[in-house]
Write a structure and sequence with these properties.
single chain, mainly alpha, about 55% helix
Length: about 90
C-alpha cells in the first residue's frame, strides 16, 4: 500500500480549510418540489396556446372552407340537377 494513509472522503481530503465559501442545505422534508407548479402550468399553457392561435386558426379556416365546399358539392351531385350534369359527361 506504500505508506499512504486514509485521506478522507470526497471533499474532505485533509487539506487546509477553505475560507469565504458559504454553503446552504435544506432538508428534503422542508422542500416543496411542486411549489407554484399549478400557477406556472396555467400561465405557461395559456401563453403557448395563444401564441399558436394564428397558425391553428388559418389551418382551421382553410379546412373548414374545404369541408363546406365539398359538402355542398356532394349535395349538388346527389340532386336532380347534379345527376343531369353528370349524365352530360
Amino acid at each position: 500500500m506504500g505508506g499512504h494513509g486514509y485521506m478522507g472522503w470526497w471533499g474532505n481530503m485533509g487539506g487546509p480549510k477553505q475560507k469565504g465559501i458559504t454553503t446552504y442545505a435544506l432538508s428534503p422534508f422542508e422542500q416543496k418540489p411542486f411549489a407554484g407548479v399549478s400557477r406556472a402550468m396555467i400561465f405557461n399553457t395559456s401563453r403557448r396556446v395563444s401564441a399558436q392561435i394564428p397558425y391553428i386558426g388559418v389551418a382551421f379556416g382553410i379546412g373548414y372552407g374545404i369541408y363546406t365546399w365539398a359538402t355542398a358539392r356532394h349535395e349538388y351531385l346527389l340532386s336532380k340537377a347534379g345527376h343531369a350534369e353528370a349524365a352530360g359527361h
